[in-house]
């Protein structure tokens, strides 16, 4: 446990001292984003544009995290235990890429469709059965959506009344016919 805490502290200190625009806390056995980190990063919060929290044990992400890091361009939450995102995620004005692959989502996090700048969404390896194609088609910046390894109902993918202008990746054998 002490080693894990020391590892997190080292990574955070490096971000602060070197004024990096990236914070990588992947594989740190975190179950939530530590409150102390907000205080330590207070002086550089606005400069951080990329956060990687991949391969931890997050079950949820707090609204506090989103509001503190509202300037993020990229957020990587791959390989956690997330089932939903806070509604405030839709207020992120600069987010271009979000990686939610290999989590526990059973429903598409629709608040993502409120993010006008979002270009890339990765939801591979979840348990999502329906995709809001009309809302996704209306997203002005969306270029790429990875829905591989999800049990999506095929008719839900073709239900859009709007033209699809983004690349959609699915795994045909996983689709329910």
From TrEMBL:
<dbReference type="InterPro" id="IPR050216">
    <property type="entry name" value="LRR_domain-containing"/>
</dbReference>
<dbReference type="InterPro" id="IPR032675">
    <property type="entry name" value="LRR_dom_sf"/>
</dbReference>
<keyword id="KW-0677">Repeat</keyword>
<dbReference type="InterPro" id="IPR001611">
    <property type="entry name" value="Leu-rich_rpt"/>
</dbReference>
<keyword id="KW-0433">Leucine-rich repeat</keyword>
<protein>
    <submittedName>
        <fullName>LRC20 protein</fullName>
    </submittedName>
</protein>
<dbReference type="Pfam" id="PF13855">
    <property type="entry name" value="LRR_8"/>
</dbReference>
């Amino acid at each position: 446990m002490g080693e894990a805490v020391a590892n997190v502290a080292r990574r955070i200190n490096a971000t602060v001292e070197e004024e990096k625009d990236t914070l990588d806390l992947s594989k740190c056995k975190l179950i939530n984003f530590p409150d102390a980190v907000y205080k330590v990063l207070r002086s550089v919060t606005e400069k951080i544009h990329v956060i990687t929290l991949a391969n931890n044990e997050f079950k949820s992400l707090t609204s506090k995290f989103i509001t503190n890091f509202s300037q993020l361009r990229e957020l990587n939450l791959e390989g956690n235990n997330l089932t939903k995102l806070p509604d405030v995620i839709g207020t992120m004005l600069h987010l271009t890429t979000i990686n939610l692959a290999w989590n526990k989502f059973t429903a598409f996090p629709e608040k993502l469709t409120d993010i006008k700048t979002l270009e890339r969404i990765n939801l591979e390896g979840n348990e999502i059965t329906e995709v809001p194609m009309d809302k996704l088609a209306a997203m002005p910046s969306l270029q790429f959506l990875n829905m591989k390894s999800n049990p999506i109902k095929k008719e839900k993918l073709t239900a859009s009344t709007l033209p699809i202008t983004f690349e959609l990746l699915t795994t045909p054998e996983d689709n329910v016919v």
